[in-house]
Please model this.
Amino acid sequence: MKILAGIIATLLASGALAATSYNNQLAFQLTESLTTEVGPRIAGSAGDQRAVDWAVKNFKQLGFDKVWTEEFVTPYWQRGMARLDIVQPFPQSLVLTALGGSIGTSEQGINASVVMFADLDALKAATPEQVKGKIVFINKAMTKDRSGSQYGPVVGARANGAIEAAKLGAKALIIRSVGTSQNRFAHTGKMVYDDKVEKIPAVAISVPDAEQLARVLTKAPEAQLKLVMHNQTEDAKSHNVVAEITGSERPNEVVLIGAHLDSWDQGTGALDDGAGVGLVMATATLIKQQGRPKRTVRVVLFGNEEGGLVGARAYAAAHANDASQIVLASESDFGAGRIWQFSTAFGEKSLAFGDEMFKKLQPLNIERGNNKAYGGPDVSVLHTLGVPVVTLEQDGTDYFDYHHTPNDTLDKIDPAALEQNLQAWLIMTSMAANTTTDFRK
Amino acid sequence: MKILAGIIATLLASGALAATSYNNQLAFQLTESLTTEVGPRIAGSAGDQRAVDWAVKNFKQLGFDKVWTEEFVTPYWQRGMARLDIVQPFPQSLVLTALGGSIGTSEQGINASVVMFADLDALKAATPEQVKGKIVFINKAMTKDRSGSQYGPVVGARANGAIEAAKLGAKALIIRSVGTSQNRFAHTGKMVYDDKVEKIPAVAISVPDAEQLARVLTKAPEAQLKLVMHNQTEDAKSHNVVAEITGSERPNEVVLIGAHLDSWDQGTGALDDGAGVGLVMATATLIKQQGRPKRTVRVVLFGNEEGGLVGARAYAAAHANDASQIVLASESDFGAGRIWQFSTAFGEKSLAFGDEMFKKLQPLNIERGNNKAYGGPDVSVLHTLGVPVVTLEQDGTDYFDYHHTPNDTLDKIDPAALEQNLQAWLIMTSMAANTTTDFRK
Model:
């Protein structure tokens, strides 16, 4: 990573390097600071507010020209106790987690037998006679891949399983965790209700517990389970945190780089998305340190991504009229694995500049992707407003081992991989902020 | 593993194979049954009693000639809730587990600052001024190795840390888990008190949480923690379960093979010690199936190993007068990794027979160890009565990733490795039960 300064020097017209206060470990240092000093930070919580304060303080200390927050109203979902037992014939507790947004049970809980389905489609094809009065268990496994393409086929059960189960009269939903590890962690994540369908509690159990429950049901199809869970939701305020390095020549043309500041409540949100926060803060800081860019570099730390892009939607709504100033946007929100592919969503005439970017990225072992980039979850909302985006695609092979579990902690980040990320972000952001190319064209 | 029947045929004089009801997957099948149908089974609990019932039922179904239980009285330690929070300046919860045997706190818990030590010796060298009124945190890391030799240097803090901390006036003890995984599980395990020293609560935190707490203390040495925990201990009854294949020629000469039936309360005790239970039950079953041995093969499933060899001591006390009948003893209690070394504790004149055993074991990639075998934790108590022992040493490289955590579940067992274990146990046990060698000589 000693070549980092050289890359920057080559990229920037300034040539001469400023005295460096910050180095290529800055992304890791910021991630360490956020995950240690703030820790868990689910939207609306005290941790979330401390994360906002942390971001404002650190942006100022890093020398950003402008720092501000943009408030929005959000549901604040609070996890309470949760316990799931096989009551008979093989009494034992299962490792579970409430799915984000789930209601709780009554004090006495839910006692019922279980009907198991291979996946959400199998549940949809079931009859009320099969399901009524039972707990639905969807036991769909997820496989690993680099791109995260296996998330989509399983996450539907998490998001919509409670609606489909309730339509058929189920008392509760249990899913096998949307995750790829044999470690005994249950993976939480956002689930939704339909106001026209009864709301039922929804939980995930760990992969080993899903295998155990399946074995139990094979041996004892009438096994009885008991679920007791206390959760609640209230309205709260949260904030997107925004900071800028003002452009020297075209300050009203904005290169927006983002990540999300919130995390789920049980881990410290290192991979999701402390690493992204550290990367985009470090990228803009190092760019300014090497010489002010021509265009403005704006860092947006979105609030409440996990609850359903609440902060991103608020940001897009507030900026619908000035989104045209954003010449390019990108987000880091897929862990801390090495970047292996660079994708764009540019106009045809500016694709050549994408190729120029790729030439600089290629030495980092990055491949050229297509021109259908997504940009990242929060930034994708801006993309729907016509903002061009790029995606620096991270290797997500192990991401779903840790995703949305208590096990998402700082030690899961490889500092060397994070430095490779930072190099790529510096190249991409510097080039975008120092050209006059209109990526919409 | 298709050669298993061939090995048995070669070993046994009978030559002709009986119609096989049971095969080389029997050890795994029994482990699966115990961990699924019983699950957690801490000594004195309802799970423990169900495990005893399970063992009696299965010994009978497997065709053992004699099956009985031997009752003993034991402390029954019951885990209650436990919560450890950094209260300020960086509020967050840490993943913890009560150490086995620990008392709880009052309802309001313990609020105190923390003093960190590198290891138990550093604590012992401290002054009361450093410790009084604080929570002691011992942050000693454990490294991996095949033989488990790194357990000893760290487990002292778990066993005796509360005594040493209390001598200096500490309010509670926190240890870094005695474990080798970066997964966010805290490892429980037996701790002891000294009646002459104040009893203080003792917990372990996961390795990532230990690293987090160390970072917090670096940034904020005066950080305040709060520990609330409810545990209780009462007297209960438990049982060793014993079953025999009666010898055809020398029924009063006993080859004793053992494992422990109890487990810690948070996992299903697959590695510790469901695999051992499955192995020794399967070994004796398959030996009988191939033709009755000359000596008696006795399987002992010891109760409450985890609480401090309570069942083993009861067994040794009850059999002090007939221990001379036991010609050889061995125990499987180090997970389910492949056996890599064969050690003995024989008299000099019978060492040649150990070499004969080794010749049969060598094709399984097993090395010859020394003549200072330990035999296993429960069997070591018999060894102190003069019983010769062997150890079939398992590869424990990953054992302490899972040991005493909720993550000790069936999926952590490699069935192929367990089959290799079974082959070795069959060879060793068959040979010991079909010779007239006196291993004491």
